[in-house]
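Need the bound structure for adenosine-5'-diphosphate, inputs here:
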Amino acid sequence: MRILMISSECAPLAKAGGLGDAVAGLARALGHLGHRVEVLLPAYDCLNLTGLPEPKPLEIHLRVPFAGRAIDCQVLDLSLDGYVCRLIAPRPQDPFFARARIYGEPDDAERFAVFACAAIAYVRALGAGARPDILHCHDWQTGLVLALSREYRQDAPVSQNTGALGKPGMSETSATPIPICYTLHNIGYQGRFRADLLTKLGVQSVPRRLAHWLADHSEAGLINLMKAGIAAADAVNTVSPRYAWEVQYTEQGMGLEAWLRRYAFKFAGILNGIDDSVWDPARDPFIPVHFDLRTLGRKEGNGQALRQRLGLADDPGRPLVAVISRLDWQKGVDLILHGIEYALRAGAQVALLGAALDPEIAGRFALLQARYADSTQVRLVLGHDESLAHLIYAGADLILIPSLYEPCGLTQLIAMRYGTVPIARRVGGLADTIQDANDSIAPRSARTGYLFDEPTPEALEDALGRALWLWREHPREFAQLRCNGMRMDWSWRKPAQRYLELYRYARQTRGCR
Ligand code: ADP
Ligand code: GLC
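Answer from helper R.:
Posting the output first, comments after.
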């Protein structure tokens, strides 16, 4: 199958969080299964090209209508292991992606709208022989790909403009439109913007059905890109079965509960995997001491290296509790802060690695960082640091993930692979992937961590307290937990098959064989 993914992140080139890991891991897994996979990505100036060749320009030129003129984009090509990346590069005078970061700009709506329209133009520019069998869009940043290409096909012309959307649609050369799957990685970010975004893109009049799809569920005058994408897609999924249920039946749907229930017939929950060639304690180039299940004892060498790198006291008699997280309200900011203090009081050491976009959150962690600047028991590293993340997974004993909601969560999966025991809230993908150590109904070999229900300091203390107690009092039992986690198969092998089923479903819906 020819699969074209459209995404705002793809690791290691562009990664702000798990979206980048998930897109890259799935693309590679599908590529290794023999499918032809391309990932379309903005050509950010902050692409991480370490160890990769320079992307090469292709003879494909795209024009995207924006604010009354056309944005010219080049397409760059980069071959990666198992798949190909195509980068959308506007000319230097249109610096939509030259901001030294992926998100957090005041014009994010426009930036990703231009990307989405360029993606539609790209598909249209491909010759019949290169036409994808399936488009796979990710998160709100690509909602317009779904909304505009679908409606455009049926009710063209959406635009009077001469750019990407103004000409006959991407399906022009073929009898059936290209089926589109849409993956919702985080329903907390829906892409809710002022409706004049469409005018900027040269969309003059919006057909009734599209207007209904786009209309935000709670605020008049806003358009909601994820909501429209859900309606337009042939198949929709989110990234764990439990989150798929939560978003339809609890406030985790963030206003889209009823909308998602309406489309339940085409909605699925597919658990993410992790790329086990990138996240492999036996081969990881970022860690000084390699280990696996049989040589788990060597993990301690990474603990020592981590303490040294962070300036923590060399004290293996204390458990090392880690946090690796985007510092966002979703991740349970108050609970993280509480967990750090509690772990320290309980005699543990703490290593936090986190980046915050929200200034209030950034301020709170900066304050704590300053307060503990001279401590040899706790270190807070604020920012994004891939190599340190690997060393923390390898060196820590426990990892704290007290999320208020979590669509899937990759940190617990990576941690388990590195023999680091997760303590997490029983929500979303965390609930689907962690089995509590004290759950007497679960087989002992399936128990991998600690879960708590209420988002309260008391509930967190109870779970973290149980974990620290086992670490101190029953080291052999604790080692067993580590091994149970390491034995789990969190690779993309099974999820990739589920995505292929989803693609087949989408193709059947469109009448493709
Ligand atoms: P989310 O996508 O919501 O941020 P996930 O658990 O799915 O959460 O994925 C987080 C990914 O980002 C993991 O690969 C984790 O190691 C990584 N990560 C998070 N914060 C940082 C950071 N500050 N530095 C390096 N990697 C980070
Ligand atoms: C999102 C979610 C996270 C998920 C990741 C990859 O950012 O917050 O739970 O693991 O996407 O799907």
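Comments: The domain at 2-273+493-512 is CATH 3.40.50.2000 (Rossmann fold). The mean pLDDT is 94.
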